[in-house]
Structure formats: C-alpha cells, structure tokens
C-alpha cells in the first residue's frame, strides 16, 4: 500500500450519480476531482504528474474507501471514541477553512513586507554578529556538570552531545548552525556573546528547556540578506502575527467557560 502521506487531505467519496468517478467501491464513487486535487498537491511538492503517480493515488483512495466502508459496517463511527474523533476532524477542518479564508481576505501587501524587513534589519543592527553554536541539554544541573567534566577530561563536545543531550540536536552532535543573538534564548545569548571561538560556557545555563552547555564554534559579522531573498519568510511571519491577532479578537468576543 502506498504511504498515506502521499494524500495530503482526507477525502470522502460521493455517490456515483452526482459526480464523475475515477472508480467505485460497492457502488460508492470516488470522484475524479479528488484524484486531480491530490495529483496537483503532489506536483506542488515536487513530484511529476505521471500515469504511475495517478494510479498510486487512485489505488490509495480505493483502499481508503474499502477501509471506511468496513469501519462503518462495524459501527466504529457510532462509538464514543469514533464520535470524538469525527468532532476533532471537523473542528480541525473548520479551523483550516477559516484560516485560509482569513488569509485570502487579508493579503500581506508588498509595502508591509518591506516595512517588516526594515524593522528586522534595524533591530539586528549594522555591527551585529552571528554565531555558529553547538549545545548540550540535560534535565538537571547535576547531569550537565557530569557531562562538562567529561569534556574537560578530553572527550569531544560532539561525542558527549550525541550521547548525553536530551535535545533533538543530539542527532547532529549538538550543532545548531548560525544564529543571531535575538534568535537565542536570552540566558544563553548573554553567555555566547562573551565566549571566544572554540570555548564553552563555564557553567551550565538554566533555561525553560533544561540545563544547557554551549560551545561557540565560530562567529562572523552578520550580512543582511537581500529583501527579495527573504520575502517568503517575511510573509509567513506576518501571516502568523495576523492570525494571532484575529484569534485574540475572536476570543475576546466569545463567551468562554472553563470547567477545570
């Protein structure tokens, strides 16, 4: 069976009499429009529109319809668990519909993007530096000090990070890549800006995510990216801010009662 990830959206088949179907399962139609939509989504993600891709997608929809019909036959959609899952699916679907409609009705203008770009560049400053960091995160200060002792005795920072850090970056030996100070947790940033290349923090640093040991690999003067190169990131950031404001206003006008 093809990976379910190929189909980006849940879909429900419609009666054969009302749609052009790509296939039917026990007289229930699988609309051709669903196949076309899924093909389009896959093409947007970099796949090629081929007969093989279309066949895989159709087979996946058939498999889903077979499973859906069997679930209905067993009455699984009528159980409390099934009803709760349906309610959550509908809620998520309605949220996605609202956000898509809100974004469409409130597009981000080119002028807003430029204002945001200028604001971010001004906030960074002309003489800012960026830092290539590695870190180790532990649950307790004691754990962090044990790992620091290993490093001081000669074990490489990368090895200790890979074996002892609880952060996902452990897979990359603790490497975080290049960061600006305003992209770093303040407690850590205050230490990083005073480190020399190749050195690590003198003591574990307490943060909300755990106790951190930080090593400065390199630092360089920050070179601001060109406006055109960061438009997608700027747009995504402004859309997120816009959505947060919309949600805030809706919450303020809603009657919310907490029972816990």
How would you describe this structure to a colleague?
The protein is an alpha+beta fold and 260 residues long. Among the domains are: 4-74; 125-221, Chitinase A, domain 3, CATH 3.10.50.40. The protein contains 8 helices and 7 strands. It has a 4-stranded antiparallel beta sheet with strand order 5-4-7-6. Helix 1 (32-44) crosses helix 2 (51-73). The protein is extended and about 70 Å long. It starts with 13 loop residues before the first strand and ends in a 7-residue tail after the last helix. Residues 1-17 have low confidence and may be disordered.
Task: Write the CATH architecture name of the domain at 125-221.
Answer: Roll
Can you write the helix and strand succession as a string? Answer: EEEHHHHEHHEHEEH
Helix content: 40-55%
For the biggest sheet, the summary is: 4 strands, antiparallel
Keywords: Isomerase, Rotamase, Signal
Family: Belongs to the PpiC/parvulin rotamase family.
EC number: 5.2.1.8
Catalytic activity: [protein]-peptidylproline (omega=180) = [protein]-peptidylproline (omega=0)
Helix and strand topology:
Layout: E1 14-15, E2 21-25, E3 28-31, H1 32-44, H2 51-73, H3 80-105, H4 110-124, E4 129-138, H5 141-152, H6 157-164, E5 175-179, H7 186-192, E6 205-207, E7 210-221, H8 231-253
Antiparallel strand pairs: 1-3, 2-3, 4-5, 4-7, 6-7
How would you briefly describe this protein structure?
The protein is an alpha+beta fold. The protein contains eight helices and seven strands.
Provide key terms for this protein.
Trigger_fact/SurA_dom_sf; 7 strands; peptidylprolyl isomerase; Chitinase A, domain 3; disordered N terminus; PPIase_PpiC; 260 residues; four-stranded antiparallel sheet; 8 helices; alpha+beta; 16% strand; signal
């Amino acid at each position: 069976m093809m990976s379910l990830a190929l189909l980006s959206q849940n879909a429900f088949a419609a009666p054969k009499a009302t749609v052009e179907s790509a296939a039917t399962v026990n007289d229930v139609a699988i609309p051709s429009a669903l196949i076309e939509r899924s093909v389009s989504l896959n093409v947007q993600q970099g796949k090629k529109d081929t007969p093989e891709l279309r066949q895989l997608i159709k087979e996946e929809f058939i498999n889903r319809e077979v499973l859906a019909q069997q679930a209905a036959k067993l009455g699984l959609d009528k159980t409390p668990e099934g009803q709760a899952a349906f309610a959550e699916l509908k809620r998520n679907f309605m949220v996605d519909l609202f956000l898509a409609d809100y974004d469409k009705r409130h597009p981000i203008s080119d002028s807003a993007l430029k204002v945001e770009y200028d604001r971010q560049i001004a906030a960074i400053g002309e003489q800012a530096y960026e830092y290539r960091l590695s870190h180790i995160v532990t649950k307790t200060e004691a754990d962090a000090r044990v790992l620091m002792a290993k490093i001081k005795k000669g074990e490489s920072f990368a090895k200790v990070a890979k074996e002892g850090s609880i952060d996902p970056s452990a897979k990359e030996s603790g490497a975080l890549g290049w960061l600006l100070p305003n992209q770093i947790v303040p407690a850590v940033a205050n230490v990083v800006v005073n480190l020399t290349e190749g050195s690590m923090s003198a003591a574990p640093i307490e943060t909300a995510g755990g106790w951190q040991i930080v090593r400065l690999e390199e630092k360089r003067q920050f070179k601001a990216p060109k406006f055109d190169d960061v438009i997608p990131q700027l747009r995504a950031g402004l859309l997120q801010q816009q959505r947060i404001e919309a949600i805030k206003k809706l919450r303020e006008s809603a009657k919310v009662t907490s029972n816990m």
